[in-house]
Design a protein that fits this description.
The strands form 2 sheets. Strands 1-9-8-10-11-12-13 form a 7-stranded mixed beta sheet, sandwiched between helices. Strand 8 (205-210), helix 7 (215-228) and strand 9 (235-241) form a beta-alpha-beta unit. By secondary structure, it is α/β, with parallel strands linked by helices. It has helices at residues 6-17, 44-57, 89-105, 118-130, 147-155, 185-200, 215-228, 247-262, 281-286, 305-313, 325-340, 372-380, and strands at residues 27-30, 78-83, 108-113, 135-139, 160-163, 170-172, 177-181, 205-210, 235-241, 268-271, 296-299, 319-320, 355-356. The longest helix has 17 residues, at 89-105.
Length: 382
């Protein structure tokens, strides 16, 4: 991504510093007044920089920038993947990638579904530890929510690797993770905001959908809001706190209420996960909205198959900032192989990408055609 303006960088730095408190099972917070109705907003420099960044992130051709060397494959390993919930397309997608890569390296991978419920996640993590696997993946939830099970895994010398488990990619000391696989959340938040700023010419009226029960998601939402604040004529109209497991049942009513209360002020939505738009079509159609019109919905993370289909059909989703889920699954297996060989983590972080109608084509996921599978086969000697 190209550099942002000083204002946008400062906004992101402020957002990163904001601590995220534990929240209830969802709420709504009304924002400020509506955006400029038409034409350009009052931040031409930010709009220009945003358009440059978006153009770069839309590119689909890239060379492999990940590892090209590392330990040869160990054999006979079993790893456990503990999922926050397999109804989260991002979690399910990376779990699938882990299973594929485990088969390629000659391991077994067991997936345990926490079903989005804290008690079930704790139970799934406990089950994973009891299996005595070679390694455990913390798939999309806060490791500190299962601190007792983390202590048990650490005591048993079971390496832990996170996927979206903490905010930053790479190794973590507290909680103790061999590494955390994710794109840079700041980049995802920033490019999501820049997309709305660029496409609206600085006039967007935005509703933010998030899950404050997940610190990673709540922090991302705050970063998006701060990045939008770099353009004074862009307005955050409302913030909807809806837990991911409740999204299917609660978002239709939320969309109906927002259309009624915000009217034409509401031109863009951004959500920390594409699944918030899975059930948007019915209430928006009922309100007379068209699939290719406002509000333009932007997913700031994961990139589900359903989101790609909506984007291609121009049906109530304009864009997504997808994770390369399959590639990240392969990376997780490679990181475990490094841990088993007492080698350091690879340090690889995938670049940020945007999918919209201009580049979606016939694809149903963001799977970079950069040869990552053959690269890992070469590293592992398999």
């Amino acid at each position: 991504m190209r550099p942002t303006t000083r204002a946008c960088s400062a906004a992101l730095a402020f957002a990163t510093a904001v601590s995220v408190a534990a929240c209830s099972r969802g709420s709504t917070q009304n924002g400020v007044a509506g955006p400029t109705a038409s034409g350009s907003g009052s931040c031409p420099d930010v709009v220009s920089t945003s358009k440059q960044a978006v153009d770069a992130a839309l590119k689909v051709d890239e060379a492999w920038t990940g590892p090209t060397s590392g330990p040869k494959a160990t054999t006979g390993k079993t790893i456990a993947f503990v999922a926050q919930t397999l109804t989260n397309p991002g979690v399910a997608g990376v779990a699938k990638g882990v299973q594929e890569a485990a088969a390629a390296i000659g391991w077994n991978a067991r997936v345990l579904d926490g079903q989005g419920d804290p008690a079930n996640i704790t139970a799934a993590m406990g089950q994973a530890v009891a299996l005595k696997p070679a390694g455990i993946v913390i798939g999309g939830f806060d490791p500190l929510s299962v601190s007792a099970q983390l202590d048990q895994a650490n005591a048993a010398n079971i390496p832990l690797i996170g996927w979206h488990a903490v905010a930053a990619p790479g190794p973590s000391q507290s909680p103790k993770l061999f590494t955390n696989v994710t794109t840079q959340v700041e980049n995802v938040a920033n490019i999501s905001a820049q997309y709305m700023i660029a496409k609206s010419n600085g006039t967007a009226g935005v509703v933010v959908f998030t899950d404050d029960s997940i610190p990673f998601a709540a922090g991302k939402a705050k970063m998006i809001e701060a990045a939008l604040g770099a353009c004074s004529s862009v307005k955050v109209l409302d913030r909807q706190n809806i837990p991911i497991p409740d999204a299917g049942t609660r978002t239709p009513q939320a969309f109906s209420s927002l259309v009624s209360s915000l009217g034409d002020q509401w031109t863009y939505s951004v959500a920390i996960n594409d699944l918030y738009f899975d059930n948007a079509a019915t209430p928006l159609r009922a309100a007379g909205r068209q699939g290719g019109g406002v509000p333009y919905n932007v997913g700031a993370g994961d990139g589900s198959e359903a989101a790609f289909s909506r984007i291609a059909a121009k049906q109530f989703q304009a864009a997504t900032v997808p994770e390369p889920l399959d590639e990240q699954g392969w990376q997780i297996v490679d990181e475990f192989n490094r841990a088993f060989a007492s080698a350091p983590a690879s340090g690889y972080v995938a670049r940020v990408h945007i999918t919209d109608a201009s580049n979606v084509g016939n694809t149903t996921s963001w799977d970079p055609q950069n040869g990552y599978q053959s690269q890992y086969h070469k590293i592992w000697g398999r």
